[in-house]
Amino acid sequence: MNSRYRSFAAAVIFLAVNAGMSQEEKPRDLPRDLKDSEINLIWKEMWKVPSHGKPLKEPKLAPLTEADVLRHLTGKWIEMAAESGSDLCLVKPWVQFNADHTYQAADDPFAPKRVCRGTWRVVSNKILAFGRQSGGLPNYIFMVGKKFYMLDMMNTRHMTELRREKDLIIGKLAWEPWAGQVNTEGGSSPEKVDGKRAKFLCELNPSGPETIPITVFVTAKGKVWAGPEQNFYVESNQSVLGFKPPKGGGAWIQWCDSLLAQQGGEKCTIDNVVDRFEREVDVFALNGAWWFGSKDTDMSRSLFKRPFINFKTEDSTKVKILRIQVGREDVQLEMKSPNEIYTAKATIDIKSKTVLKAVLQKAGKPGETELPLSGKTAAPRKVEKAGAVPIVPPATLPKTVALLGKENQKKWEIESGDWAFQNDALIGSGSSQIAYREMFSPPFTLRFSITVLEGMRPRVKFGRMKFANEGYDKTFGIYPPAKPLKLFDYHLNKEYQIAISVTTEAVQLKIDGTLIPTAPGVKDKAEQLLFCAGDNWSKGKVKYKNIIVTRGTETQPAR
Predict the structure, then answer these.
(1) Closest Cα to residue 26, out of 37, 15, 35, 11?
(2) In whole angstroms, what is the distance from residue 137 CA to residue 13 CA?
């Protein structure tokens, strides 16, 4: 459960546990090892909590013993996503229950080697599990009919279904012949390859099954590709990489590896690769490659989001690939945005699969802007052509920048929604985002005033951090948060003064001069500042005023 519901659940448990105790027996803190009678009382109280204003009926549980747990609940189990998400420990890609009443579970769907641990026991047909992430509170897993569920206060029914990973592939169309092309080192044109193609029907989302097309081929040099179908492929000395626009929309390029490791020798045939794929397919890896590309290239892939951003009316699949050149150690791409305004060139290191260099050129403007890359310290610069205006070097950049000054308004780009400049204010409405295109490296301090006029989703994003209103209450905070999470309650139509000090060690938030939380620091540069007024869930209206960034460490604390 998230922190809001965990706090609520803690209150329910505390009341339930204390209900049957005398004053002398009442504990000062929630016990980790609760009595069976207390467990059952907590369970009853949980189901008295109405969902969306409606009372819930306690489900009739099927018999469940410790022997059943060891017999049936080993292996990979997946949570069929709760309505608003969940961070419960036992809904990860795999969970292993042990005979000594301990368990291990994957901590992250995309990092299965990260493991959390805890203890379990069965009480009245329910598995009671205590884990590192459950904060001392019990997690309940139970059976209704022949299905397993988890108690989840984020779900309208308080029940989230658990499914075995192997059961999430619910169908497959037969493998058929497939012909494609692969770009090779030094090749002036792609080489033809023959392979096979099939469609896997996967149920990874409560909204319904999804069809994922799979291609499999072996190159003339014996390199293997087996994974989601891509727009084009690149063969290197190490492996085959696939490139395509993102599944969820957006005009940029992402890439991923084959889901099968290289295997040479006589067994490296199409039929052998198909057989291996069907036996070894990992549903989470398949879903991640289809939607996100390779996990280790997230920061690098986001680079392409910048040159091809804000083409909401055009088909993202129409990003034009002008040139593909494969070298011994890198791949060079040249591409054009759907509306042909921008041209981008990028060099990608094959071994690390990260971007080494990328430049952007806008039609009708001289010079190429070199885009900043994650983890590099060099400031962005322009590759100048004759007659171009020199760029101010980083050492002489102004220390204080008024983002709403007239000289800086051209640096703002609307991504969605309605935005208007009014004197020293920026007003956004609807599901809306606007980006200030300038890089700020820690340390820096961002100041502004904010007045929320409507809705509940104002956000200001800088790098991987954000100042935001999340959840279902009107609160401001920094995310990812410090522990314990501290939030500030705000009211509509009231102006608040915000100061966010960003260093590599910590992010410090002050609202009207009061320190709220201290969050983890930011190591990377903020390549842009993104301001939001609302989203699809809450189409808000927000006024931002006097937006100022001060570079460097301040001698006085932010006020």
Answers:
(1) 15
(2) 8
